[in-house]
């Protein structure tokens, strides 16, 4: 085992820890930006250090195709760290996620997954053994076991098949892992939304005594009530002294909720992808810099933010860039990742200093100033033992129609349209207006695949009508 995990503070299920990896000492909870092929689009590694990034995620499937793991390993040693000039920690996924995102190119059998390369069209067989061998050559601090991934919206025997195959494949990954003293192999809990299958998978993985564990198969279109219940179940069953990683989660509200439930690590393309479409993360939700109301707004993106972008540039300047110049997406990517790193630091410090409930309430009050905190968040916080009643309006008093919710400049009208009817381009199609508050919206979800051209749907389940489900006991 090549890590140490030391819990520094707790509040009920939430915990703040020191995660010591071969290349860096990290503070959790933490968010990991996705550098699919060894780069965060538009940002240098020096900039990522400046904003406090601790771990970058690389994609095994894409790195194996280009530039190839052999080339990364051969260029002077040092693996991906040296190749991309990154001195801090790295995590590589296994390639399993591409079973979902590139399903039209994949054939899944017990042996492994055969992909049709999007580069040259040739078949590529990825087995558990090959996935680990590639990751051993890449040299990340944390490597992920190859798992059989299916969408959480799928039901029936395929979910059970994938869960048991994931358990069989973990043993093949362990046997193939040749660098256990330098790299940490994490197992991935699968089982869809079925609590029985999730429990079987958790218990099976814990028996293998791995350095850490991930909760996989989420953030794929399931409703938020199901999402947090799976996280709550898995974090409660996973070992206290090992890191817990919720894969594919990058929306700030989700990270706060999952941290309250006892998770430690997160990753997603969301902060940088949404930046490339002109959207900034702010305490109130998101700010749409493409909106014409931004054209003469001389304020910074976020007056409370200390990042380089907010100190030096105005909304009007970035508005001019976002549709015409790459600099716009670069500046917004910098700001958005700074926001995520600051969120991670605030989660950590608030837990260590014993003020986590106050931090959660302040976070929710800024995002939901009218007290319309989604019911799934309220239910999750009840299970986490955090009283957020001070920032929640009674559900019976909340408006039941979208047109009644047009308060405080927060527009959630897009939440009512079916996903398939939403525009395929991240363009503001609403009426403009001169009040820049109309540019604010609660956090909107974007797909997690790595190609910008596939941004065709907007998942607004985090701000949709509350669920009527009761909290988990």
Features:
473 residues; 34% helix; 16 helices; 8-stranded parallel beta sheet; single chain; disordered C terminus; alpha/beta
Can you tell me the residue ranges where pLDDT is under 50 for at least 5 consecutive residues? 400-438, 444-473
For the biggest sheet, the summary is:
8 strands, parallel
What general outline do the C-alpha atoms trace? globular
What's the overall average pLDDT, rounded? 85
Q: Considering DSSP H and I runs of 4 or more, what fraction of the residues is helical?
A: 25-40%
- Report the total helices: 16
How many distinct beta strands? 17
Biggest sheet: strand arrangement: 4-14-13-12-11-10-6-5
End-to-end CA span: 34 Å
Determine the strand fraction and express it as a percent band: 15-25%
**Radius of gyration from CA coordinates:** 21 Å
Structural class, judged by helices and strands? Answer: alpha/beta
């Amino acid at each position: 085992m090549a890590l140490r995990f030391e819990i520094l503070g707790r509040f009920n299920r939430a915990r703040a820890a020191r995660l010591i990896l071969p290349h860096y000492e990290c503070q959790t909870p933490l968010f990991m930006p996705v550098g699919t092929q060894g780069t965060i689009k538009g940002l240098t590694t020096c900039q990522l250090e400046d904003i406090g990034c601790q771990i970058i995620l690389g994609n095994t499937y894409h790195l194996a195709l280009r530039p190839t793991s052999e080339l990364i390993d051969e260029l002077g040693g040092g693996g991906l760290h040296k190749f991309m000039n990154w001195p801090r920690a790295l995590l590589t996924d296994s390639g399993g996620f591409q079973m979902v995102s590139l399903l039209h190119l994949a054939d899944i059998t017990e042996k492994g997954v055969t992909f049709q390369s999007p580069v040259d069209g040739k078949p590529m067989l990825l087995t558990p053994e090959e996935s680990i061998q590639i990751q051993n050559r890449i040299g990340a601090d944390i490597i992920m076991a190859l798992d059989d991934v299916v969408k959480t919206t799928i039901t029936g025997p395929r979910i059970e098949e994938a869960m048991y195959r994931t358990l069989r494949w973990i043993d093949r990954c362990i046997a193939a892992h040749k660098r256990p003293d330098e790299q940490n192999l994490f197992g991935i809990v699968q089982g869809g939304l079925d609590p029985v299958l999730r429990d079987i998978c958790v218990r099976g993985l814990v028996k293998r005594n791995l350095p850490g564990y991930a909760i996989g198969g989420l953030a794929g279109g399931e409703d938020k009530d199901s999402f947090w219940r799976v996280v709550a179940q898995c974090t409660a069953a996973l070992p206290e002294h090992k890191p817990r990683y919720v894969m594919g989660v990058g929306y700030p509200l989700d990270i706060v909720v999952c941290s309250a439930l006892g998770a430690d690590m997160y990753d997603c393309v969301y902060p940088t992808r949404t930046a490339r479409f002109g959207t900034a993360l702010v305490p109130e939700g998101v700010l749409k810099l493409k909106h014409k109301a931004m054209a003469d707004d001389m304020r910074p993106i976020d007056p409370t933010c200390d990042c380089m972008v907010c100190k030096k540039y105005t909304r009007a300047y970035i508005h001019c860039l976002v549709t015409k110049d790459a600099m716009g997406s670069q500046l917004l990517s910098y700001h958005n990742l700074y926001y995520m790193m600051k969120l991670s630091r605030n989660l950590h410090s608030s837990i260590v200093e014993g003020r986590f409930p106050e931090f959660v309430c302040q976070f929710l009050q800024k995002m939901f100033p009218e007290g319309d905190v989604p019911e799934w968040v309220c239910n999750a916080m009840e299970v986490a033992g955090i009283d957020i009643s001070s920032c929640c309006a009674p559900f019976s008093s909340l408006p039941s129609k979208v047109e009644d919710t047009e308060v405080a400049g927060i527009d959630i009208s897009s939440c009512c349209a079916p996903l398939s009817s939403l525009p395929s381009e991240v363009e503001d199609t609403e009426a403009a207006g001169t009040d820049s508050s109309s540019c604010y919206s609660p956090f909107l979800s974007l797909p997690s695949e790595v190609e910008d051209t596939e941004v065709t749907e907007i998942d607004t389940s985090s701000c949709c009508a509350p669920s009527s489900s009761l909290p988990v006991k």
